[in-house]
Amino acid sequence: MPGQAGLGPETKNPVLAAIFSRRSIREYQDEPVSKKDLEMILEAGRFAPSGLNNQPWRFLALLPEDKRVQGLAGCTKYASIVRTARTLVVVFLEKRAMYHPMKDHQSAGACIQNMLLAAHALGLGAVWLGEIVGREAKVLDVLGLDPDAYQLMAVVALGRPARQGASSRRPLGELLLEEI
Predict the structure, then answer these.
(1) In terms of pTM, does the model score above 0.85?
(2) Residue 147 sits in which domain range?
(3) Confidence grade of residue 164 (pLDDT, cut at 50, 70, 90)
(4) Residue 22: CB partners within 8 Å, gap ≥ 6?
(5) For residue 119, is pLDDT > 70?
(6) I need a labelling partner for 71 at 20 to 30 A (CA). Which of 5, 41, 82, 89 fits?
(7) Measured distance CA(137)–CA(25) in Å, rounded
(8) Residue 18 is assigned to a structural domain of this protein
(9) Do 125 and 31 contact (CB within 8 A), yes or no?
Protein backbone atom coordinates (compact mmCIF):
# COMPACT_ATOMS: atom_id res chain seq x y z
CA MET A 1 0.00 0.00 0.00
CA PRO A 2 1.25 3.51 -0.67
CA GLY A 3 2.86 4.88 2.42
CA GLN A 4 3.89 1.43 3.63
CA ALA A 5 6.86 -0.81 2.92
CA GLY A 6 8.62 1.87 0.85
CA LEU A 7 5.90 1.97 -1.82
CA GLY A 8 4.47 5.40 -1.11
CA PRO A 9 5.35 8.90 -2.26
CA GLU A 10 8.55 8.71 -0.24
CA THR A 11 10.02 6.15 -2.65
CA LYS A 12 13.39 6.91 -4.22
CA ASN A 13 12.40 5.24 -7.49
CA PRO A 14 11.60 8.09 -9.91
CA VAL A 15 8.98 6.16 -11.88
CA LEU A 16 7.09 5.09 -8.75
CA ALA A 17 7.48 8.56 -7.26
CA ALA A 18 5.89 10.06 -10.39
CA ILE A 19 3.02 7.57 -10.30
CA PHE A 20 2.31 8.22 -6.61
CA SER A 21 2.64 12.03 -6.79
CA ARG A 22 0.80 12.79 -10.06
CA ARG A 23 -2.58 14.44 -9.61
CA SER A 24 -5.17 15.84 -11.98
CA ILE A 25 -4.64 19.58 -12.47
CA ARG A 26 -7.61 21.63 -13.61
CA GLU A 27 -6.35 25.21 -13.21
CA TYR A 28 -3.42 26.66 -15.14
CA GLN A 29 -1.17 29.69 -15.10
CA ASP A 30 -1.24 31.95 -18.13
CA GLU A 31 2.03 30.55 -19.48
CA PRO A 32 2.35 28.61 -22.74
CA VAL A 33 3.43 24.99 -22.93
CA SER A 34 6.67 24.94 -24.91
CA LYS A 35 6.80 23.08 -28.20
CA LYS A 36 9.64 20.98 -26.77
CA ASP A 37 7.53 19.93 -23.76
CA LEU A 38 4.50 19.21 -25.95
CA GLU A 39 6.58 17.05 -28.26
CA MET A 40 8.02 15.16 -25.27
CA ILE A 41 4.50 14.51 -23.93
CA LEU A 42 3.35 13.25 -27.32
CA GLU A 43 6.45 11.05 -27.60
CA ALA A 44 5.63 9.54 -24.21
CA GLY A 45 2.16 8.71 -25.52
CA ARG A 46 3.67 7.22 -28.66
CA PHE A 47 5.73 4.81 -26.57
CA ALA A 48 2.73 3.24 -24.84
CA PRO A 49 2.17 -0.48 -25.36
CA SER A 50 -0.39 -1.62 -27.92
CA GLY A 51 -1.60 -5.01 -29.09
CA LEU A 52 0.45 -6.22 -32.07
CA ASN A 53 2.32 -2.90 -31.73
CA ASN A 54 -0.39 -1.39 -33.94
CA GLN A 55 -0.13 2.05 -32.29
CA PRO A 56 -3.68 3.08 -33.28
CA TRP A 57 -3.67 6.40 -31.41
CA ARG A 58 -3.68 9.73 -33.21
CA PHE A 59 -3.24 13.18 -31.65
CA LEU A 60 -4.54 16.65 -32.38
CA ALA A 61 -2.82 19.40 -30.39
CA LEU A 62 -4.74 22.66 -30.00
CA LEU A 63 -3.32 25.92 -28.65
CA PRO A 64 -5.56 28.53 -26.95
CA GLU A 65 -5.73 30.77 -30.03
CA ASP A 66 -7.14 27.95 -32.19
CA LYS A 67 -10.78 28.79 -33.03
CA ARG A 68 -11.76 25.15 -32.53
CA VAL A 69 -11.07 25.41 -28.78
CA GLN A 70 -14.30 27.38 -28.23
CA GLY A 71 -16.28 24.80 -30.16
CA LEU A 72 -14.67 22.02 -28.17
CA ALA A 73 -15.55 23.83 -24.93
CA GLY A 74 -19.19 23.65 -26.02
CA CYS A 75 -18.95 19.85 -26.09
CA THR A 76 -18.27 19.31 -22.38
CA LYS A 77 -19.43 20.32 -18.92
CA TYR A 78 -15.73 21.05 -18.28
CA ALA A 79 -15.75 24.02 -20.66
CA SER A 80 -13.77 26.22 -18.25
CA ILE A 81 -10.90 23.70 -18.21
CA VAL A 82 -10.91 23.51 -22.01
CA ARG A 83 -10.88 27.31 -22.31
CA THR A 84 -8.11 27.91 -19.77
CA ALA A 85 -5.76 25.06 -20.67
CA ARG A 86 -2.59 26.24 -22.34
CA THR A 87 -2.66 23.25 -24.72
CA LEU A 88 -5.20 20.54 -25.45
CA VAL A 89 -4.28 17.15 -26.81
CA VAL A 90 -7.27 15.40 -28.34
CA VAL A 91 -6.65 11.66 -28.47
CA PHE A 92 -8.30 9.43 -31.06
CA LEU A 93 -8.05 5.90 -32.32
CA GLU A 94 -7.70 5.63 -36.07
CA LYS A 95 -10.32 3.03 -36.95
CA ARG A 96 -8.43 1.42 -39.82
CA ALA A 97 -5.39 0.92 -37.55
CA MET A 98 -7.47 -0.92 -34.93
CA TYR A 99 -7.61 -4.69 -34.71
CA HIS A 100 -9.46 -5.44 -31.46
CA PRO A 101 -11.70 -2.81 -29.83
CA MET A 102 -11.03 -3.72 -26.20
CA LYS A 103 -7.27 -4.03 -26.63
CA ASP A 104 -7.12 -0.83 -28.65
CA HIS A 105 -9.13 1.06 -26.01
CA GLN A 106 -6.80 -0.29 -23.33
CA SER A 107 -3.77 0.87 -25.31
CA ALA A 108 -5.32 4.33 -25.67
CA GLY A 109 -5.63 4.45 -21.87
CA ALA A 110 -1.96 3.50 -21.51
CA CYS A 111 -1.06 6.19 -24.06
CA ILE A 112 -3.00 8.83 -22.14
CA GLN A 113 -1.47 7.75 -18.81
CA ASN A 114 2.01 8.02 -20.33
CA MET A 115 1.21 11.58 -21.42
CA LEU A 116 -0.11 12.49 -17.96
CA LEU A 117 3.05 11.14 -16.33
CA ALA A 118 5.28 12.93 -18.85
CA ALA A 119 3.49 16.22 -18.19
CA HIS A 120 3.98 15.71 -14.45
CA ALA A 121 7.67 14.88 -14.93
CA LEU A 122 8.10 18.12 -16.90
CA GLY A 123 6.53 20.21 -14.11
CA LEU A 124 3.27 20.66 -15.99
CA GLY A 125 -0.22 19.85 -14.85
CA ALA A 126 -2.72 17.83 -16.84
CA VAL A 127 -6.16 16.34 -16.58
CA TRP A 128 -7.79 13.55 -18.56
CA LEU A 129 -11.22 14.72 -19.74
CA GLY A 130 -13.22 11.61 -20.54
CA GLU A 131 -16.77 12.91 -20.18
CA ILE A 132 -16.45 14.57 -23.57
CA VAL A 133 -16.61 11.21 -25.36
CA GLY A 134 -20.36 11.28 -24.76
CA ARG A 135 -20.52 14.00 -27.41
CA GLU A 136 -18.16 12.36 -29.87
CA ALA A 137 -20.15 13.22 -33.02
CA LYS A 138 -20.21 16.92 -32.09
CA VAL A 139 -16.48 16.91 -31.22
CA LEU A 140 -15.56 15.35 -34.55
CA ASP A 141 -17.74 17.89 -36.34
CA VAL A 142 -16.19 20.84 -34.46
CA LEU A 143 -12.71 19.54 -35.30
CA GLY A 144 -13.59 18.80 -38.93
CA LEU A 145 -12.70 15.11 -38.66
CA ASP A 146 -14.32 12.13 -40.36
CA PRO A 147 -16.36 10.00 -37.92
CA ASP A 148 -15.75 6.97 -40.15
CA ALA A 149 -12.00 7.40 -39.67
CA TYR A 150 -11.58 8.34 -35.99
CA GLN A 151 -12.93 7.39 -32.58
CA LEU A 152 -12.59 9.95 -29.78
CA MET A 153 -10.82 8.65 -26.67
CA ALA A 154 -10.25 11.75 -24.51
CA VAL A 155 -8.99 15.29 -24.30
CA VAL A 156 -5.89 15.96 -22.20
CA ALA A 157 -5.73 19.54 -20.91
CA LEU A 158 -2.22 20.84 -20.15
CA GLY A 159 -0.58 23.84 -18.53
CA ARG A 160 1.63 25.06 -15.72
CA PRO A 161 -0.32 24.32 -12.51
CA ALA A 162 -2.03 27.27 -10.85
CA ARG A 163 -2.51 25.13 -7.74
CA GLN A 164 -1.67 21.65 -6.55
CA GLY A 165 -4.04 18.79 -7.14
CA ALA A 166 -5.21 16.50 -4.38
CA SER A 167 -6.93 13.16 -4.15
CA SER A 168 -7.10 10.14 -1.93
CA ARG A 169 -7.00 6.45 -2.67
CA ARG A 170 -8.97 3.61 -1.19
CA PRO A 171 -6.88 1.17 0.84
CA LEU A 172 -5.44 -1.67 -1.23
CA GLY A 173 -7.25 -4.20 0.94
CA GLU A 174 -10.60 -2.85 -0.29
CA LEU A 175 -9.56 -3.48 -3.90
CA LEU A 176 -8.23 -7.00 -3.56
CA LEU A 177 -10.61 -9.84 -4.35
CA GLU A 178 -8.41 -12.12 -2.24
CA GLU A 179 -5.67 -11.46 0.28
CA ILE A 180 -2.13 -11.59 -1.07
Answers:
(1) yes
(2) 23-162
(3) confident
(4) 116, 117, 120
(5) yes
(6) 41
(7) 27
(8) no
(9) no
